[in-house]
Amino acid sequence: MEIVAYGVLATERPLLEQAFAPSHQVRCLDLFLTPDTAPTAAGHEVISSSVNDTLDAGVLRVLADGGTRMIAQRATGHNNIDLGRARDLGITVARVSAYSPHSVAEFAWALALAVNRRVVRAASRTREFDFRLDGLMGRDFHGRTVGVLGTGKIGAAFAGIAAGFGMRLLGCDVVENPRCRELGLEYVERDRLFAESDLVSLHAPLVPDTRHVVDAAALATMRDDAILINTSRGGLIDTGALVETLRAGRLDGVGLDVYEEEAGVFFRDRSMEVMTDDVLARLMTFRNVLVTSHQAYFTREAVGEIVRTTVRNVEDYLAGRRSDDFL
């Protein structure tokens, strides 16, 4: 069987081809699934999608009409897929329900440390042989309060690192994680977490109840010198409200590995184009904001696990089996 994989990164392609061989061929495309590109899946029963593919009702209809019956998403999140419409069309959807939580948790801390200690600004200066320390003062994280919004596997890994720093741990989630309790994390209401935390890190899935959970009201509750980190999903933050907060001179720093309108921008070279997203362009003018291109998961261990799980999901579908990865 030939499988078409969309949104495949250059470093991901050989891993996918090797993992599917010799049972299946995989045609790896660097283009993303959109209404314009969906017809390229015609004649393929199984396709593999990336987190930034568009799988709305219209795209799913094109896929179904072309014979697609299974979508293997190479990501944990599935907010880009209209699952109800997929079921109506008889399309089976599977995802990678878990991979190395340490990859994302460690990168969230990389962002937090870089923002707090002005690492990017310092590196830019020293490349120009400017060795002044003006404007580079950070703070000790030891003894301060960190708020973890979403305490699943990644949130727990993040909290474990925070405990190593000697921080006070606050958490908020619909379900408490015993591992976080063992670390000394105190579960509190969302508003209290925002109000008391020196550092807030987001590790919640994007669902209707969490969309724009960090809105203007939440940002107003946060301390003026707080740091905000998001390595989960861009839609957790109302980016327009965040820009206004930063314009008002509030928040000590922001680290974002995700952006709510990242589809069509992230994973691509846009350096020779005019950036038409005014919100993103404005966001990146702030010196205390660090934006990376959805790379928190991007370690050998995590990508290898994603590929292996994707192959297993396809094999399970073809054998008529279902696992917890099936939605």
From TrEMBL:
Keywords: NAD, Oxidoreductase. One of its GO terms (molecular function) is NAD binding. Residues 11-323 form the D-isomer specific 2-hydroxyacid dehydrogenase catalytic domain. PANTHER family: 2-HYDROXYACID DEHYDROGENASE HOMOLOG 1-RELATED (PTHR43026). InterPro entries: D-isomer_2_OHA_DH_cat_dom (IPR006139), D-isomer_DH_CS (IPR029753), D-isomer_DH_CS1 (IPR029752), D-isomer_DH_NAD-bd (IPR006140), D-LDH-like (IPR058205), NAD(P)-bd_dom_sf (IPR036291). Belongs to the D-isomer specific 2-hydroxyacid dehydrogenase family. It comes from the Bacteria. Residues 110-296 form the D-isomer specific 2-hydroxyacid dehydrogenase NAD-binding domain. This is Hydroxyacid dehydrogenase. The lineage of its organism: Bacteria, Bacillati, Actinomycetota, Actinomycetes, Kitasatosporales.
